[in-house]
């Protein structure tokens, strides 16, 4: 490190949502505070391991579908710690010239960003350290604009992210997503998942407290509030569903998990 490079505070003494998720996925980039918080979640909601896995599998299927449908540009906000296959691995496996921009606010993800940048030589991958609560900053970042052409369709991925943005009485989360959507041209796509308390309200109430005690505010949303994120765009079949039920690779994959175990809505929509 030279004198001009900023020192990154990895904040290892506090639990972080991306590192808790990494633990649920069986990753190794998590620390004592993250494992303690994850253990508390598992104590009240043992299916968290299943929910995390099927949420990740939704991202795989949606990315593969969108790349096969002709999308060549992807903006993945709330990327999380690299866990292969990452979004660019899947997109560039289908279409090698795909361009991908990853964004996250966890300093640990920043430290591991190089793992996200080894894509196909025909395409491009870039990483932007930023927060979804500043959508204008993301959209105007030179690194994003050097990688993606916002005059052409973009697949926007918000995977298990917006439940970390509470509304604070101002419908903030929907406003952020609308800002992102409005910057994208016709033919762009929004692929999104979001945790819900519709099926396990008591367990989810306890999870809210566990995360709050760790310094992270969550807001689980019901089906109608999740569906509003797609207002004005055309939902692709099968519409709003649970994460494991969106275009499963095998029919039995849609039935081996209960609604309560999933507790996460998913949908994909296209801008007219």
What does the model show?
- The chain contains 11 helices and 8 strands.
- The chain is an alpha/beta fold.
- Strands 1, 2, 3, 4, 5, 6, 7 and 8 form an 8-stranded mixed sheet that branches.
- Helix 3 runs parallel beside helix 4.
- The radius of gyration is 18 Å and the shape is globular.
Mean pLDDT: 92
Subunit organisation of the chains: single chain
Dominant shape: globular
Q: Strand pairing plus helix content: what structural class?
A: alpha/beta
Evaluate the radius of gyration. 18 Å
Tally of strands:
8
Regions with little confidence, pLDDT below 50 for 5+ residues:
1-5
Annotation field: number of helices: 11
User: What proportion of the residues form beta strands (DSSP E)?
Assistant: 5-15%
Helical percent range? Answer: 25-40%
State the end-to-end distance.
47 Å
Major sheet attributes: 8 strands, mixed
**SSE sequence, one letter per element:** HHHEHEHEHHEHEHHEEHE
